[in-house]
Amino acid sequence: MTSLITFEYSQNIWKHFHSKNFVEKDLETSVAGRSFMITGANSGIGKATAMAIAKKAGTIHMVCRNKDKAEEARAEIVKESGNKEIYVHILDLTETKKVWEFAESFKKKYKTLNVLINNAGCMMTKREENDEGLEKSFASNSLAVYILIKSLIPLLEKSPEPRVITVSSGGMLVQKLRTGNLQSQRGRYDGTMVYAQNKRQQVVMTEQFAKAHPNIHFSVMHPGWVDTPTIANAMPDFHSSMKERLRTPEQGADTVVWLAVSEAAVKNPSGRFFQDRQMVSAHLPLAWTHSSQLEDQKFMSVMEDLTFSCRLI
After folding, report:
1. Is the alpha carbon torsion for 71, 232, 144, 154 positive or negative?
2. Which PANTHER family match (predicted)?
């Protein structure tokens, strides 16, 4: 853990918030009549994203694991934004089959979905499996994201100006895509590195989905190191020592909101990686983290097979 934090710091990945370079008019827009699904929307970056978009009159679908926390967050968003078009959906993203069932049910119930925001993150301190025998971090951070995107693509494609945004992490910069041992069954389990690998997988998924579905604008982003419950719970020592230097959830959410609502965002090519409203490389200079086209395709094939398998259970 310490080595990863040190590496990211040395590479200036979690630098100070660059709002001075932002074009504020990019976010001066109403999104009334547009619908946004946000996973992990009851706290941290997800909640800040939901609040910001709700204030712009967007319809929000909060996908959350904890009903009480979700309803509490919804009430706060409604009160502060004055927007009552905020809906709560209870789903544990580690439960793979239920993720697919939720997406299929959502397609039948709702006529449009303009933006899907994959924000929820799971960082495990020890290896655990879900009911399908899948490692929970992979199930939540990678397979759930794949299933939601794949299942909701038909709904997105028939909606105006569809977008998919995935919240990744700068930790993925120290990871090359793995096509084997996706369940972390071999070797010592390091929850931080598993999380970083999942985040690299999200980048590859974004790139591949963008190629396959040019009518949807796909993007993946790094929010910086943000003071969120995930960081506080999974890395308490880091959180307590660096708390004063972490970004606020609102700062972390800024680029998510920009990618979700601004016209400027979609002028950039689809499938790219962003930080602080700028398109940046998904690899460090001279990095060994590039995967081949064959490796990317093999990974996507594995994800498709796992998705199919979960539907048969």
Report:
1. positive
2. DEHYDROGENASE/REDUCTASE SDR FAMILY MEMBER 12, SHORT CHAIN DEHYDROGENASE_REDUCTASE
pLDDT in tens, 153-185: 999 999 999 999 999 998 899 999 999 999 999
3-state helix, strand, coil in the chain (%, to 5): 50, 15, 35
Q: How many residues does the chain have?
A: 313
Q: Which of 110, 146, 189, 195 is catalytic?
A: 195
Within 8 A by CB and 6+ apart from 195, the residues are: 121, 122, 123, 124, 137, 141, 169, 171
What are the tokens at 2? 């310490």
Q: Could you say which DSSP state residue 15 is in?
A: P
Active-site residue, 195 included: yes
Q: Report the C-alpha gap between 271 and 280 in whole angstroms.
A: 12
Rounded CA separation 79/75 (Å): 6
291 contact partners, CB below 8 Å, separation of at least 6? 176, 177, 204, 299
Which pLDDT tens digit goes with each residue over 250-293? Answer: 999 999 999 999 999 999 999 999 999 999 999 999 889 999 99
The closest alpha carbon to 223, from 10, 27, 14, belongs to 14
* Token pair recorded at residue 68: 């009480």
Query: From the CB of residue 125, how many other CB atoms can be counted at a distance below 10 Å?
Result: 12
List CB contacts of 114: < 8 A, sequence separation 6 or more: 31, 34, 35, 36, 156, 159, 160, 161, 162, 163
Per-residue pLDDT at 234 exceeds 60: no
